[in-house]
Each structure stands twice: as C-alpha cells, then as structure tokens.
Backbone:
C-alpha cells in the first residue's frame, strides 16, 4: 500500500512540475504601479516628534514674548506721553494764543500751524490712546478720527470750530476736541461713556488719567459668540512616534456667561494620521475579517473624524485687548473613514496589508480635552485666538481601539453676535 | 538579476517576473480552483515578493537562484492559503475550461501532458481542505507539523485530510482509467 502511495506521490509531483498550463499575459505594468505605490507609502518609520513639540512651544513662547513687548512698549509710550504732558503743563499756553485773541482775522491761520506743530505729539498720544482702550467699542471708533489728525488730508470732515485753547471737529454727532496742550480728548454724545464735554475740555490733567476714567467705564464682551478654527495636529499612540501631520478645522460656538467663564461647543472635522506597533492594536473587531494566525506587527493609518466638543472656558486674564484662557471638556466623535496599512506576520513571513473601513462608528465622550490659549481683540466684537490643545483618549479609537492622543494647535477667529 | 531586484530596480524586477511568473502561477493554480483567481493571487504574491525583496539575504551567489525560488514558492503558497481562507475553504463549483491548458498537438509528449493535466484536475477537484494538505505534503514537501501551523489545524487533522485525499484520488484515478478503457 505504501508503495502505491509512493508511486502515486511521485506521479503527482511530476505532474505538478510539468503540467501544461497556459501562462497568462504579462501584467508587469500593473505590478510595477502597485510596487511603486507601496514604495511611496512605505510604512512604519518611527520619527522623533520632539522637534514638532518644540516648534509648538516656541510658537507659543514667541507669542507670549511678543505680547510682553507690546505691553512694555505701551507702558513706555504712556511714560513719554506723561513727560510731554508735564512739559506742556509747565509752559504757559495762554501766551501762545495771546496775540490771536487780539487779531481774530488771523485766528484760523494760527490754528492750523498750531495743529501741525503738535501733529507728531498728537499722533503719539493717539497711538497710546488707541492701544490702551480701543477694545471698547466707542473708543475704537473715536481712535479712527484721531489717526486722521496726523495727516491733514485725513482731518475729520464736518464743522470745525476753534477758540483760544481748542479746536473742535464735529462729525456725525461726535465731537473731536484738540486742546492746546495736545491732550486729544473726544466726547461722545452718550453721557454714559463720556462724562461731559466741559469736564474734558477744562481738563488739565494728564491724558492718562482721562484714559483711566474711560477704561473704568468699559464693559467686557458677553453673550453668544461664533467662530471658525483650524490648525495642524499630531496623533500618537502611546508616545510611539508619527509619520505625518494631520489637520482639524470647523466651527465653534460659545456663550460668555460672565467676565471669566464661558461654555463652548462646535463641530470640527479632523484628519488624523497615526502610527503604532501591533501591541496596541486590538484585533477584537476584525478577527473574522482577517486570516487566522495573522499577527499585526505594526501599522500606519489615517482616520477622518467629526468631533463635537463641549468645553468650559475660563478667562484668567481678560483685560483690554488681551486674554489668556484655558479650557477643559469632553469630545464626542463620529469616525467616518479609516484606512490602515498593516505590516503583518503571517505564516512565518512578513507581509503588508491595506484595509479601509467606511462604517461610521460613534463614540460618546471619546476624549478629555484640555487647552490653553491666547486671544487678541481685533475689533468691536472680533477676537483672534491661538490655542494649543491636547486630547486625552477615554476610549480606544478606530477599528483597533487604539489609545490615541491628539496634540495640536488651533488658530481661529470668533465674533460676538451682540 | 537578484541583486537588481534587491535594489528595487524595475528593469531586473521585470526580468525576474517574466522568468518566474509561469512557475508561480503553476504553484498557485494547484491550490486555487479558478484560473482567473489564481492569476490574481500570483500577482498579489509578486507584489509581496518585490515589496519584501530588500530584506532578502542569501549566502553564496550560486545559491541565489534556488533560495529565491524556494522563497517565492513559500510566498505563493501562503498567498494561496490566504485566498482559500478568505473563501472559508468552501468547495468550488463549475468545471475547468479547456482553453487554460497548453497542450502541443503533434508532440511526442502530448500523451504525457494530457496525463499530467488530468492528474492536476483530479487534485483540483478535491475538497479545498484535502487539496491543500495534499499539495503541501506530497508536492511541496511540508511536514504535518508545518501544515498544522500553517493552516491552524491539528496535526491529526492534517494526517486525516491527507489520508482521505489519497483515497479520493485513488478512486478518481481508477475511474479515469476505466473511462479510458471504455473509450478504447
């Protein structure tokens, strides 16, 4: 019986070696294209991310430094302005105008050189002025008039009147008053914002004091705001490294509950590339779809996620134009697409496999988010923000349930609706 | 050529492909029932082979050819088994078309070629699990232990499948011979 089997085996071996199978047409072009693609997407090169982290930190540090310089500069200008104010107050302004009173025909002629004479100083005062208080709605508008002072061609239109000590421009109900000592003071018709023309015109105190009065009358932005944010992100599975940078972006909305506290939500789309060794990839969800005995050695992939954050925002330095804030909250996510490039060990040899998954997977409270950021007011109701953040996973993400930490930077603009 | 393939040079890869694609297809076709599918599996096998060629290491130059062929055979077998697994080792239906065979009309070897073709058809008509074990053990020289690991089955199952495959093949050969006698 063994002989029969042996003979049969020999016969089949011979048949296997020499059976007359027609060989198909060459598919080399197709094969070459696939090889090229796989070489381009050659996976699994662990790269150090230290540089990227340092880059983010440097960016943030640079921002803080810039802000510090602005603050110092502003303070410096205030000092200059105070010095000028002191010098002005020491001279006798009345003597400058003495002759003009005697000859009213020369009044206009004299006033114009006077304005010019103090042009640069006026502009300096205005610069200080706008830097300090233009975050307040009405003051911001007024500061535009002031800028015009420096350039005669941009002098405010409207009725211009003058007397010994002041020149008054009235345009659209807003009076801009230039005093002889270049304490450029403006009065709005609204008595709530400005305490009164007389008080200011008679005011011989330094401009900084007037500014302080106005600042004390300002109100913080409150209520509903909306905005757009976008920025790069990096995803890591257990600090293993990464190959590519992703991005996220979308719309946010928030409500400023008090001067310091706001709640924020939004809808953001994120594309997250990642890398991991097989150690952190769970096969539970795909056991049936993968060949038995397959072991994932490593993978490189990308997913696309819609994120719905809910965060509490605390403004701990909400003053004037600047605001430093921190947020904490949770994010729910809907993953719409995932593609993984696996390096697997199967039957003793290493192979690559590519799988994509398009089934939507929802995850309620998938990450805990924390961030710290900086806001700069750019107008009556607009703010620019820069916000480095980190998303700490509360659940495994994707088909492999991997613990994926996202770190990124969001740049955005927000606008208060009221 | 092998060195060129290791370096990823397409020129040498093409030469290698053209030289060995027939060999690869004949390995895969013993496992995979449908010709078109076997062509695809062999193609996938080449993708894997060229992708991993940079990791290939061989000692002496003269061994290169044999080692690469052995390596390629292993990759093709693995690719075939993966394909069978994806189909859950279910038996295939439908016949094997004649146009896939290349039999010389007036050659001295024609009879032998026909015999070989018939024997291969007998193997292919085995249930996939029996066919795989028979191919692995008898033709490709795997041990039962290796087959058990490869197919994720018990060694006893491998032996049992082989035994049943032999019995089925013997019956088929008998039928085939009887059929030939009848025709005569």
Residues:
């Amino acid at each position: 019986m063994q002989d029969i089997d042996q003979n049969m085996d020999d016969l089949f071996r011979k048949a296997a070696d020499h059976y007359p199978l027609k060989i198909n047409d060459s598919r080399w072009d197709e094969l070459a294209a696939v090889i090229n693609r796989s070489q381009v997407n050659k996976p699994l090169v662990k790269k150090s991310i230290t540089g990227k982290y340092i880059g983010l930190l440097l960016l943030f540090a640079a921002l803080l430094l810039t802000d510090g310089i602005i603050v110092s500069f502003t303070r410096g200008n205030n000092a200059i302005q105070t010095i000028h104010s002191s010098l002005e107050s020491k001279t006798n302004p009345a003597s400058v105008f003495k002759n003009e009173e005697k000859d009213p025909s020369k009044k206009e002629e004299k006033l114009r050189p006077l304005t010019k004479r103090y042009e640069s100083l006026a502009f300096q005062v205005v610069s200080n002025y706008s830097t300090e208080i233009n975050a307040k709605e009405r003051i911001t508008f007024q500061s535009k008039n002031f800028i015009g002072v420096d350039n005669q061609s941009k002098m405010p239109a409207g009725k211009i009147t003058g007397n010994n000590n002041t020149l008054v421009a009235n345009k659209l109900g807003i009076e801009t008053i230039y005093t002889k000592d270049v304490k450029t003071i403006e009065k709005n018709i609204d008595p709530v914002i400005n305490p009164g023309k007389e008080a200011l015109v008679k005011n011989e105190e330094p401009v900084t004091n007037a500014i302080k009065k106005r600042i004390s009358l300002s109100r913080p932005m409150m209520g509903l705001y909306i905005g757009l944010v976008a920025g790069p992100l990096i995803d890591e599975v257990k600090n293993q490294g990464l190959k590519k940078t992703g991005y996220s972006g979308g719309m946010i909305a928030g409500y400023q509950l008090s001067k310091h506290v706001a709640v924020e939500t939004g809808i953001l789309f994120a594309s997250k590339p990642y890398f991991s060794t097989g150690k952190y990839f769970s096969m539970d969800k795909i056991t049936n779809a993968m060949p038995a005995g397959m072991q994932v050695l490593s993978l490189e992939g990308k997913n696309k996620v819609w994120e719905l954050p809910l965060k509490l925002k605390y403004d701990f330095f909400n003053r004037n134009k600047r605001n430093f804030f921190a947020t904490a909250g949770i994010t729910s996510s809907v993953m719409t697409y995932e593609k993984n490039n696996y390096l697997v060990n199967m039957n003793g040899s290493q192979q690559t496999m590519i799988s994509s998954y398009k089934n939507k997977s929802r995850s309620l409270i998938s990450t805990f988010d924390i961030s710290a950021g900086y806001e700069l007011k750019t107008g009556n109701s607009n703010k620019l923000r820069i916000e480095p953040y980190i998303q700490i996973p509360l659940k495994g993400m994707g088909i492999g349930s991997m613990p994926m930490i996202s770190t990124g930077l969001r740049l955005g603009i927000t606008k208060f609706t009221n | 050529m092998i060195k060129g393939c290791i370096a990823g040079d397409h020129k040498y890869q093409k030469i290698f492909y053209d030289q060995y694609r027939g060999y690869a297809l004949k390995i895969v076709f013993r496992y995979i029932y449908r010709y078109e599918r076997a062509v695809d599996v062999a193609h996938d096998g080449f993708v894997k082979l060229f992708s991993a060629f940079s990791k290939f290491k061989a000692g002496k130059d003269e061994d290169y050819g044999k080692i690469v062929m052995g390596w390629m055979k292993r990759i093709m077998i693995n690719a075939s088994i993966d394909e069978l697994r994806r189909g859950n080792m279910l038996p295939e239906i439908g016949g094997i078309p004649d146009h896939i065979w290349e039999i010389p009309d007036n050659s001295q070897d024609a009879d032998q070629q026909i015999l070989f073709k018939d024997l291969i058809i007998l193997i292919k008509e085995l249930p996939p699990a029996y066919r795989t074990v028979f191919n692995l053990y008898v033709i490709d020289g795997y041990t039962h232990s290796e087959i058990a690991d490869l197919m994720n089955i018990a060694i006893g199952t491998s032996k049992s499948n082989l035994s049943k495959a032999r019995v089925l093949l013997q019956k088929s050969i008998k039928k085939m011979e009887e059929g030939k006698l009848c025709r005569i």
Remarks:
- The interface with chain B takes residues 4-5, 8-9, 11-16, 18-24, 26-28, 30-32, 34-35, 38-39, 291-293, 346-352 of chain A (CB under 8 Å).
- Residues 278 and 297 of chain A are 5 Å apart (CA to CA).
- The radius of gyration of chain A is 35 Å.
- The first strand of chain A starts at residue 159 and ends at 162.
